[in-house]
TrEMBL record, chain A:
Its main location: membrane. C-type cytochrome. Part of the cbb3-type cytochrome c oxidase complex. This is Cbb3-type cytochrome c oxidase subunit. One of its GO terms (molecular function) is oxidoreductase activity. Pathway: Energy metabolism; oxidative phosphorylation.
Automatic annotation (TrEMBL), chain B:
It holds the Pfam family COX1. It comes from Vineibacter terrae. Heme b 1; low-spin binds at H122, H411. The gene is ccoN. This is cytochrome-c oxidase. InterPro entries: Cyt_c_oxase-like_su1_dom, Cyt_c_oxase-like_su1_sf, Cyt_C_Oxase_1, Cyt_c_Oxase_su1_BS, Cyt_c_oxidase_cbb3_su1. Its main location: membrane. The keyword Kinase does not apply.
Length: 293, 549
């Protein structure tokens, strides 16, 4: 029943089949299609010969070039490490002072440190290291655990309240909630603490009340924060007289800190970053602080 | 709808619905305190709704014998309406996800609206909701026309259509509750997967039962593709869905495969979902509506043959190109790459066959936005298959992998090819199905066309740019020999492109809304021109005829 006919427009015959009015021309497959198919097939055959390609039982054809991605990547990593070792070795063996004095090494520290910091630390401390609520600003001169390169390096290695056995441990107690001090005294202490860094905040505080608050502070807080409230590195307790706040310096935040306590968690990086990487980060932070006005 | 079913079919429908309701109750009981129980409630509600519908029309008069002299098009009509509904929903969510990447706060602090949950809502709604319903609806239409045979009964098509939509509903609501198998494009959990197997087998049986009663001894190319789509999707779905639920009362299951085998199975599935769902099915669509609308014969039957077998054979091997430079052995990657390169030939042959079919009808392409939708779709099909083969080359992939380039590539295919061929086909078939002379407004089809093309182009260019910048940033080293940019640096660089992408997506979404309005006005039968409504279908080659014996 197939009746072939000639298509007037193209001049080709149809196949004679009709489906609800649709017909097909019996046009031969254009030559370029065949050439193209042969070309891609040839490419594939050659590629199979050269590279690992076909499974044979429990093994596979290895290819004439003897290339394998595992060895390639291992070699690339080795070569890259070797190229970097020119300066990484000097960082590893040099003292902080020596490295800081070497502009060539410090260029590498700045370039690599930025990438390392933003990839590992920025989620908490911000891309500019200026921190955010609950996460300290690392560009200030006010350090919980000390700002000497050795001290910073140790903080990064073991973390704070972390899972590391040598972790730095600190805690701001829940003075209000645990009733370490009569609740009615707490607002006084809050104002006193605010006045330490910003005298205007405690300006209209009666002198007697201020004295009472100072006594309370010395009795309850100075053990950790120091008599002068300038913080104690051994306790990881912050300086309360500067303008930097981890948890906010408004009345509500300070009240919350003293009432409920605080305990920040900083992960340990010993298992995740190499000694050189940690050293680079330390130098990066020291350099960043020096550059921050 | 129900008046079309015989008394026996209504009874069978009730039985099926009661079984489904019982499954829902069983899920509710077994899955107490688990999301499975909630899904049991969804299943029960769907079944009860169906039961009410059937009972209400149970005693309506039976359909007359005259139905046998007509094709059965009601499921196609409902399928197209469902497809458009899913399109608007899925594209809305997609654009939301796009804006979310520009403004991360747009989750409004809710769990269900986080990126990880609404992204699969988007992909499932557009691929399976929009694409799948459009494929089912058009396949019923094309199958009957090209076979000259009516669908074998009035119940099975509804079972397939509504069963399929229940699956989509379970999938989408599940993601928002956090239910997922964590396999891309195969996220639904085991119980939804099992249900889809039942529905899909019914679909295949329905197809075969109609096809064996065809009048023309040869099977038309469109049906080769539709059949490949149905058969292979079944195989892929079953194999990749092999999982063990942690208990019958839990939605959670674990894959039967582990490690790199699991990854390979997933991407064998994933890439063939692109091949057999998003390519073969829509080629079936193109092979019917394009020559029909153009009024031209297919350029070359012989080229159809090599394209079909080329696509079916080569695609099966290509999945491993999704796992270049991973734990997957090198030799598997080689095979994936080389077969992807060879795959370009049949892909381009298909696109070329479509475009050459338009020879002698280019004036129509100029004047008729519906045909232009299909023509541009074929062009995008050619472009994105070229891009796909190119990206499958390992060294290119080392730049493109994990970047937005992949997202751009997918959308060149999904918007440019799949959605455009679907809209073109829908604009062709709606007047035929509802027996209108033409669409309500040719002007609005034109508007939709330009919105869709502009949206696609903006989207794809934005993602090419961002993807290549991203890929380059990730591999740039400074003089010290360490990486020059952090990951966050690359995110900051992406932001303007993400905004552009979201705008492109918005244009595409607006186009779909315009399309819905146009279709709705056509269905409501308000002919723009005051021409008399023709009694028969506007398709001149579609005489109402007796199905083959």
């Amino acid at each position: 029943m197939a009746v072939e006919e000639r298509d007037k427009h193209s001049g080709y015959m149809t196949t004679g089949h009709v489906w609800n009015g649709i017909k097909e021309l019996n046009t031969p497959v254009p030559r370029p299609v065949w050439l193209f198919l042969i070309g891609t097939a040839l490419f594939s055959f050659v590629y199979w010969l050269l590279m690992p390609a076909w499974p044979v039982g429990v093994t596979y054809t290895k290819g004439l070039l003897g290339i394998d991605q595992r060895t390639t990547v291992a070699e690339n990593l080795k070569a890259a490490a070797l190229a970097r070792s020119e300066w990484t070795q000097r960082i590893e063996s040099g003292s902080f002072k020596e490295i800081q004095a070497d502009p060539h090494l410090m260029t590498a520290v700045r370039q690599t440190g930025h990438r390392l910091f933003v990839d590992n630390c920025a989620v908490c401390h911000g891309t500019d290291a200026k921190g955010g609520k609950g996460y300290p600003n690392l560009t200030t001169t006010s350090w919980l655990w000390g700002g000497e390169p050795e001290q910073i390096a140790e903080t990064i290695r073991v973390g704070i309240n972390s899972a590391h056995p040598d972790t730095r441990v600190s805690q701001m107690p829940a003075v209000g909630r645990d009733q370490m001090m009569p609740g009615k005294d707490i607002p006084k202490v809050v104002r006193y603490v605010l006045g330490l860094s910003d005298p205007a905040a405690a300006k209209d505080m009666p002198a007697g009340e201020r004295e009472a608050a100072r006594t309370l502070f010395e009795a309850n807080c100075a053990a950790c924060h120091g008599e002068d409230a300038k913080g104690k590195i051994e306790m990881g307790a912050p300086d309360l007289t500067d303008r930097f706040w981890i948890y906010g310096g408004d009345q509500q935040s300070v009240l919350a800190t003293i009432w409920d306590g605080r305990q920040g968690h900083m992960p340990t990086w010993e298992a995740r970053l190499s000694p050189v990487e940690r050293k680079i980060l330390t130098l990066y932070l020291v350099d960043l602080r020096a550059k921050t006005p | 709808m129900l008046a079309q079913l015989t008394r026996d079919e209504r009874l069978n429908a009730l039985i099926i619905l009661f079984v489904v309701a019982a499954c829902g109750v069983a899920m509710m009981i077994a899955g107490q305190g688990d999301p499975l129980g909630l899904h049991g409630g969804v299943v029960l509600a769907a079944a009860v709704l169906g039961i009410f519908g059937v009972v209400a029309g149970y005693y309506a008069p039976e359909p007359s014998e005259a139905r046998f002299s007509q094709y059965y098009d009601d499921p196609s009509k409902i399928g197209i309406i469902l497809a458009m509904g899913w399109a608007v929903f899925g594209m809305f969510i997609g654009d939301w996800v796009a804006w979310l990447l520009v403004y991360p706060d747009l989750t409004f602090d809710a769990g269900w609206s986080s990126f990880g949950r609404i992204r699969p809502v988007h992909t499932t709604a557009v691929i399976f909701g929009f694409g799948g319903n459009a494929l089912i609806a058009t396949s019923f239409h094309v199958l009957q026309r090209t076979s000259g045979a009516r669908l074998p009964d009035q119940l099975l098509p509804w079972f397939v259509l509504f069963g399929y939509n229940l699956f989509c509903l379970l999938a989408v609501t599940g993601y928002m509750m956090g239910i997922t198998q964590s396999k891309e494009y195969a996220e639904p959990e085991w119980y939804a997967d099992l249900w889809l197997v039942v529905v899909w087998v019914a679909y295949f049986i329905l197809y075969l039962r109609t096809l064996v009663r065809r009048r023309e001894p040869h099977i038309y190319v469109a049906n080769w593709y539709y059949m490949a789509f149905i058969l292979v999707v079944a195989i892929l779905h079953i194999v990749n869905g092999l999982t063990l639920p942690i208990s019958l009362g839990s939605a959670k299951s674990y894959s039967a495969f582990s490690g790199v085998q699991d990854a390979m199975t997933q991407w064998w599935y994933g890439h063939n979902a692109v091949a057999f769902f998003l390519t073969a099915g829509f080629l079936g669509m193109m092979y019917y509506y394009l020559p029909k609308r153009a009024g031209r014969p297919i350029f070359s039957y012989r080229m159809s043959i090599i394209s079909f077998w080329g696509i079916v054979f080569f695609y099966m091997w290509a999945g491993s190109h999704h796992l270049h430079y991973t734990a997957l052995p090198h030799w598997v990657q080689t095979l994936g790459m080389t077969f992807s390169v060879m795959l370009l030939v049949p892909s381009w042959a298909s696109a070329g066959n479509a475009l050459l079919t338009l020879n002698g009808a280019w004036h129509k392409v100029r004047d008729d936005a519906t045909l232009r939708f299909m023509m541009v779709a074929a062009v995008f099909y050619g472009l994105s298959t070229f891009e796909g083969s190119f990206m499958a080359i390992r060294s290119v992939n080392s730049l493109s992998h994990y970047t937005d380039w992949t997202v751009g590539h997918v959308h060149a295919g999904a918007l440019g090819w799949v959605a455009l061929i679907t809209f073109g086909s829908i604009y062709a078939v709606v007047p035929w199905l509802w027996k209108r002379e033409r669409m309500y407004s040719a002007g609005l089809v034109e508007v939709h066309f330009w919105l869709a093309v502009a949206g696609t182009v903006i989207y794809v260019f934005a993602m090419w740019n961002s993807g290549i910048i991203q890929g380059l940033m990730w591999r740039t080293y400074n003089e010290s020999g360490t990486l020059a940019y952090s990951f966050i640096d690359s995110l900051v660089a992406m932001r303007p492109y993400y905004a552009a992408r979201a705008i492109g997506g918005l244009l595409f979404l607006i186009g779909a809304v315009v399309g819905c309005y146009n279709i709705w006005m056509t269905v409501r039968g308000v002919p723009r021109a005051a021409a008399e409504v023709p009694a028969a279908s506007a398709d001149p080659d579609d005489p109402i005829r007796q199905p083959a014996e």
